[in-house]
Amino acid sequence: LASLNAMLSAYAMNDELSQAKSMFQWMPVWNLISWNTLLRVLASSGSLAGARELLDTMPDHDLVAVTSMLTAYAQQGHLEEAKNIFDAIPDPDTVSWNAMLAAYAQNGHLSGAKKLFDSMPVRNLSSWNSMISVCGQLDDVFAAESIFHSMHSWDMVSLNALLTAYAQEGHLLKAEQLFEELPVTNLVSSTCMISLYGVNGLVEDAERVFYALPEVDMFTWSSMVSVYGMNGYQREAEAMFHEMPQQSLVSATVMITAYVQQGKLEKAKCVFDRMARHDPVSSSALLAGYVANGYTEQARKVFEEMPYRCKSSWNAMLSADAEKGDLLQAL
RNA sequence: CUGCUCGAGGGC
What we know:
- By secondary structure, the protein is mainly alpha-helical.
- The protein has helices spanning 2-13, 17-26, 32-44, 48-57, 63-75, 79-88, 94-106, 110-119, 125-137, 141-150, 156-168, 172-181, 187-199, 203-211, 218-230, 234-243, 249-261, 265-274, 280-292, 296-304, 311-324.
- Helix 9 packs antiparallel against helix 10 (141-150) and helix 17 (249-261) packs antiparallel against helix 18.
């Protein structure tokens, strides 16, 4: 059973939801770990409703299951739900506390994060790492450094959190210095540097980091395409986009944005139409392009076909209205 | 064998 569970877990890592589901059904017996693993697959695939339903039908809940659910809500931006789950846990362990801490941090509730951190009965490395990230989001590099230096032990995540804090505040030199001093880096550090170089117009530096990597992933690929795009290197962006072994919502959106910036709306539309699915971000990327160029009709069409409407989509639409003095018409 | 911390995309 343990080895079947391990296989199930491998599907979870690769986000292979349907494979995981059918494997689960074929398993002759299940234990709590099997259920928890399936829950995790559902949760990380973004299927909140499915995860919730599974949680309610599972024979038992333990802390692991509930914490997975908490994280799922947090990652979809449902901070209140996450907090409700946390509050209902009678005796949370450090991982659950950390999950709640991360929920605050990832949703921008930085004061909530600080408060929770202060009230934690036990903190571990993950807790401290989250706080470095919180300081980074507050643009308080000094506090991030202080935390880092006060830590008795640190790991790659701590270093990357600090690196990200530097990047966020635009401390190119500090980030560069840290990155170059590190004996070991990983894809997270490299992606951070690639996009930092990109926003500073240092395309060749970004390339140097990218091409030195022994292997790349979706994040590094997308960020390199983005660097090309935001610096007007349309052909390079295109080439890299098409060389990518796999596409994702993000990589396609990056490419759409690159075309939009060049005013190549037909090409942007073409990428958009080839996407397996759309989300509010990919739709608003194209929408913004139409709006900026006064194509109200096309903008409205994209808007109406959006998978679900959210506040951010309305913002793009409203700015179209303002520019055209055509408020109700655009909708 | 399962849960927590760091990196990529639009608008504001």
